[in-house]
Fold:
Amino acid sequence: MTTSDLHTISTSDPGLGTNARIEEIRAAFPILQERVHGHQLVYLDNASTTQKPFAVINRIREYYEHENSNVHRGVHSLSQIATEEYESARSTLKEFVGARTTSEIVFTRGTTEAINLVASSFAKPELGEGDEILLTRMEHHSNIVPWQMACEETGATLRVIPIDDDGTLIYEEFERLLSERTRILALTHVSNTLGTVNPVKRMIRDAHGLNIPVLIDGAQAVPHMPVDVIDLDCDFYCFSGHKMFGPTGIGVLYGKEALLDAMRPYQGGGDMIESVSFERTTYNELPHKFEAGTPNIVGALGLAAAVEYLREIGFDLIREHERNLLVYARERLSQIEGIRFIGDSAHRAAVVSVLLGSTHPYDVGTILDRMGIAVRTGHHCTQPLMRHYGIPGTVRASFAFYNTLEEIDSLVEALQRASSVLS
Ligand code: PMP
Structure:
């Protein structure tokens, strides 16, 4: 597909991916109208956090204006409304990932807390000397450090599936590393730095062949593709609201009911108990056993609004448009002299990591910011991956369905400018 083909798709296709539809979508995200250093904002840092549509912003406002109260505790009307809305948000999230019951949907602060919960309450009590936890080279720090902490306390060891230079997992190495010593396989569905989409379904099947449970870090998958936890058959699936057009401070841990049921609580406090005495405390039923204290009620409502919004747009349009963005970005960027792509896996989400000659990513990012373009520079919380490539960091452009081909043109122009200024 050529550059002009792609422009044609974006401007004249009467179906999905039309410019008019994308413009309509952009109008639903007020921040996209902002100006930065006198330029129209070009927001290409969606893997860090996504922007929020009016549907989410208005839901938060409506809650505080009309419904604010604490959940699960009051007989008064507002408390009942807040409880119903919070539990209804849980149902929306259950549908979103295709879980069997709302007992399997635990609200957390985000992906990080969800992984810590599983490392602490599921893995740690079973771990000992000689046991292994299997990760990949491309994990985010939040899917490394909690396991490392569990290993430090129990004498277990981390094993790491290597990648090739394209940023694809080496499957034979994965098969070799899976063993009767493996207590859990924890891996990312989509790499935040490379965009690689891992073959998680096949890996889960292979791990289950040896009765090894699997946790999937879905932080970078849920904004881009439909996820069905029953189809994947994963044991745990984690994601963050703020990376899927919802609020910060809210996320989800999906876990198979039988596993969650057998796990000890993560934190103690209000709401997670059935009864308390100084002699003995019994715990609440799922999922409340894992939600100690007043939850992020408004966060859950905002996240449910984001899910509804995503449903309205539909993953068909999202996937089609983001694929066009990715193909176009690769093609246009490759015209820049001295550019080096970090990660080139055959299966990718709309993320491009690059280096520009011998320039430092931070300097490039600073110049781009002066031109109103927001990209992320640095190690993207994947230092072991940076070590694999022998680089300190990259310049990363990560796309969402509201980005346009014209924004990619602006990015390319700005990178060319940065390249000539810095060299
Ligand atoms: N995993 C991946 C793949 C991520 O990209 C991120 C965020 N960059 C996280 C985990 C952590 O998410 P959060 O900070 O929302 O907990």
